[in-house]
């Protein structure tokens, strides 16, 4: 009588490996939590034989078995000598990293496609040798030797805007003979912004919120008379409060032509009680087929307007930044572009 085979209740191999990796990551997070400063001690260091070290141990074992089988004291002495050398290398490999003080050097915000370097400052009272650092999705660096202070880092090539949170940094060394690898896995308690890639574009400034914009040719043709009347009434009711730097796009009637003729530069008249409507960069009016392309144009426009000293505002749908200029205003604009969600 034939019996049906019982289905295998064990999880597939890749699922078991994923479970083991998750358990290992939780254990590593408890042992090495995220930080910005470290001093490497035995709790933070791990050491294992390299591939060359495993072959070395296999050779020592083969010599020991050969000497024992043939009762050859010279072969046994060679096996013991090589084993003692391995133990000596073990101590030197561990000591090369033990006590090393590390400090994170936070990178500056960057742009998509531009290299961003995350570095560590290494401090020690004695020389260190053959140090290596690497991280997932980054290019690592090597340091042949360091004295009291040195820097070592990794280079990222970000492909997406937004917050960049690096994985664990693997700092290790195979010193002195490459038989063992001692390392530490450092979790970084820091993230930095990646701005959209700037795309060349001539900035176009639009009237700010609250200023009517004509929707068709007929309305634009009918507006000048009424607008002129409103402007006359407003000018009559308002008093001249002073002068302000001229911004491209302002009405020519507001330019202080007397100061221009005297060579004092371009200024516009400001009236008391008159709301100062800024000129805006608008995502909806920016050319481009995709959102990322438009954000790239706006990023380039922000950099250009700041360089020229022009006051501007940024409208990303309901997310609006009031007009201004300066380093803080530029950082706010770039941050909103980097974190924009359509």
Radius of gyration: 34 Å
Sheet-strand content, in percent, reads 25-35%
Count every beta strand, where a strand is a DSSP E run of 2 or more residues: 19
The main pleated sheet reads as: 5 strands, antiparallel
Question: What is the CA-CA span between the terminal residues?
Answer: 65 Å
Arrangement of strands in the largest sheet: 1-3-5-9-7
- Report helical residue fraction: 25-40%
Shape: elongated
**Overall mean confidence score, pLDDT:** 83
Q: Ranges with pLDDT <50 over ≥5 residues?
A: 210-238, 272-276
Order of helices and strands: HEEHHEEEEEEEEEEEEHEHEEHEEH
- The number of helical runs is 7
Oligomeric state as shown: single chain
Structural class: alpha+beta
Tell me about this structure.
- It is built from 7 helices and 19 strands.
- Strand 18 and strand 19 (319-324) form a beta hairpin.
- Helix 6 runs antiparallel to helix 7 (327-338).
- The two termini are 65 Å apart.
- By secondary structure, it is α+β, with helices and mostly antiparallel strands.
- A 5-stranded antiparallel β-sheet has the order 1-3-5-9-7, with no helix packed on it. Strands 2-12-11-6-8 form a 5-stranded antiparallel β-sheet.
- Mean pLDDT is 83; it is low at 210-238 and 272-276.
- 35% of the residues lie in helices and 27% in strands.
Question: Which characteristics define this entry?
Answer:
342 residues; 35% helix; 5-stranded antiparallel sheet; alpha+beta; single chain
């Amino acid at each position: 009588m034939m019996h049906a085979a019982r289905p295998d209740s064990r999880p597939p191999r890749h699922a078991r490996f994923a479970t083991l990796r998750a358990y290992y990551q939780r254990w590593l997070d408890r042992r090495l939590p995220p930080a910005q400063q470290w001093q490497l001690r035995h709790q933070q260091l791990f050491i294992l034989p390299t591939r060359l070290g495993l072959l070395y141990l296999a050779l020592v074992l083969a010599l020991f078995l050969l000497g024992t089988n043939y009762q050859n004291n010279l072969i046994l002495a060679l096996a013991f000598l090589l084993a003692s050398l391995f133990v000596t290398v073990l101590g030197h490999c561990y000591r090369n990293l033990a006590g090393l003080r590390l400090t994170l050097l936070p990178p500056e915000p960057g742009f998509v496609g531009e290299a961003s370097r995350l570095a560590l400052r290494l401090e020690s009272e004695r020389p260190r040798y053959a140090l290596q650092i690497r991280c997932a999705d980054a290019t690592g660096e090597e340091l042949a030797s360091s004295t009291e202070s040195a820097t070592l880092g990794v280079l990222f090539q970000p492909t997406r805007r937004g917050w960049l949170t690096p994985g664990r940094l693997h700092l290790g060394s195979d010193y002195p003979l490459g038989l063992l690898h001692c390392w530490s896995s450092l979790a970084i308690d820091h993230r930095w912004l990646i701005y959209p890639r700037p795309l060349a574009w001539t900035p176009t400034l639009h009237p700010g919120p609250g200023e009517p914009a004509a929707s068709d040719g007929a309305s634009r043709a009918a507006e000048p008379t009424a607008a002129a009347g409103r402007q006359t009434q407003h000018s009559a009711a308002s008093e001249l409060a002073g002068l302000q730097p001229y911004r491209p796009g302002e009405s020519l009637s507001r330019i202080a032509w007397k100061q221009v003729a005297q060579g004092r530069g371009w200024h516009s008249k400001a009236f008391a009680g008159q709301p100062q409507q800024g000129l805006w960069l608008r995502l909806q009016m920016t050319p481009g087929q995709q959102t990322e392309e438009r954000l790239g144009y706006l990023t380039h426009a922000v950099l250009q307007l700041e360089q020229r000293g022009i006051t501007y505002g940024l409208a990303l749908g309901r997310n609006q930044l009031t007009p201004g200029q300066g380093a803080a205003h530029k950082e706010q604009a770039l941050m909103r572009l980097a974190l924009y969600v359509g």
